[in-house]
Design a protein that fits this description.
By secondary structure, this protein is mainly alpha-helical. Helices cover 58% and strands 6% of the residues. The protein is built from five helices and four strands, in the order ββαααβααβ. It has helices spanning 25-45, 53-73, 87-102, 116-141, 147-170; strands spanning 12-15, 18-21, 110-111, 176-177. The strands form two sheets. Strands 1-2 form a two-stranded antiparallel sheet. The protein has a two-stranded antiparallel ribbon with strand order 3-4. Helix 1 runs antiparallel to helix 4 and helix 4 runs antiparallel to helix 5. The chain is elongated.
């Protein structure tokens, strides 16, 4: 099988159940989810297998869930069976709570960065927020989009923030507080 088909040379792409322009909101949303998935893969490659076993397991599961969500957004068939459910959202919430307990309490806004893996997780967080915004735009334009994807992306960005902080904490790297911030978290 060849990787190139030449079928996209006219500015259209195949989705599940049809074809659309490559700049369609649907393609933008699931394409950004693909970008997010790539940054998560990069973060995994930067994590020590022993020190971050729990995070690697989380992030690997998240990569599969992102594939499910992207597939759900790419599906325009009349009869659809969405793969992404509310269950992974509940798992993310539990993990956010656990990671938030492990990291030192937040008092001020922090700057993205620290270790390479934490910096990559912060990049992934911002891409998750963009994917969420694009999914919201798609949902406004097209009514038959699963709202679970948007909710999942919202929770995922929070998870990625918490994970980035824990990575720095376990590596004894302090988060850099935004110096012009007052205490905003109590």
């Amino acid at each position: 099988m060849k990787l190139y088909t030449k079928s996209g040379d006219t500015g259209k792409t195949s989705i599940i159940g049809g074809r659309v322009d490559k700049d369609h909101l649907r393609v933008e949303a699931y394409g950004t989810i693909d970008e997010l998935n790539s940054f998560i893969g990069k973060a995994v490659s930067e994590l020590d297998l022993e020190k971050f076993k729990d995070l690697i397991e989380d992030l690997t599961a998240i990569q599969h869930e992102l594939f499910d969500g992207g597939g759900d957004l790419a599906n325009v068939m009349k009869e659809r069976h969405y793969k992404l459910t509310d269950e992974p959202i509940a798992v993310l919430e539990k993990r956010i709570d656990a990671l938030s307990e492990e990291a030192p309490p937040l008092k001020r806004f922090i700057l993205p960065g620290g270790s390479p893996a934490a910096a990559t997780l912060h990049i992934a967080r911002t891409v998750a927020r963009r994917a969420e915004r694009e999914t919201v735009s798609l949902m406004k334009e097209i009514e038959d989009v699963s709202p679970v994807v948007q909710k999942y992306l919202n929770r995922l960005s929070d998870y990625l923030f918490a994970a980035a902080r824990v990575v720095n904490y376990r590596l004894s790297i302090q988060d850099v507080e935004y110096i012009r911030s007052g205490d905003v978290f109590k």
